[in-house]
Amino acid sequence: EPDASYGGAVWGEVVPQLTGANVAFAVRARVVLLRDLGAPLAPDNAFGIIQGLETVPLRMKQHCSNAQKVVDYLSKNKNVDRVIYPNIHKGEIGDRAKRYFKGGNGGLVGIELKGGVEAGKKFIEALKMFYHVANIGDARSLAIHPATTTHSQLTQEELLAAGVTPGYVRLSIGIEHPDDIIADLDQALSASSKPSLKAVS
């Protein structure tokens, strides 16, 4: 039967011609299912995942504890307009957080900086310990300014519709010592509020 996802190739005819062997099923499984499902996992990767699963509860406890300390600090910082974290919401969202997040509220923290896009850029550039990457949930602390990276192709209206304000920064709080995390955030927030130096000609 022709495979529409591969230009109408009929695997039972094409594979023997290309390989000299009738391994159509194996080739189709490799080129179609691997592409579409990503099912196969290398043995070393499987081993690493299994080992890592053993310490997930300990790491999550540290993520949640560190994130709460960061939220407490950020809530009092004059350069932060808003902190986004489940347990500081009011109303229905706050009630759900209390009901469902009994073991902690996770490691993701959102902040909106008062200085908008410029403050967001300066904040990211000033971070020393945080890694500037788009992924989340790492043992290391991570930060990203979506308006100038992951969502930079969107218009201002599309950004706001997606919930991305000009000064929004997403933090994924790691398992480092909380004092080190807060010290890095503190110096970066101070840097984000400093006026840019303009060249004098």
From TrEMBL:
GO MF, one annotated term: cysteine synthase activity
Cofactor(s) listed in the protein's UniProt record: pyridoxal 5'-phosphate
SUPFAM superfamilies: PLP-dependent transferases
One GO location term (cellular component): cytoplasm
GO biological process: cysteine biosynthetic process from serine; L-homocysteine biosynthetic process; transsulfuration
Record's keyword terms, sorted: Pyridoxal phosphate, Transferase
Pfam family, one: Cys_Met_Meta_PP
Keyword Transferase: yes
Keyword Transport set for record: no
Family stated for the protein in its record: Belongs to the trans-sulfuration enzymes family.
PANTHER family: HOMOCYSTEINE/CYSTEINE SYNTHASE, HOMOCYSTEINE_CYSTEINE SYNTHASE
Protein name: O-acetylhomoserine aminocarboxypropyltransferase
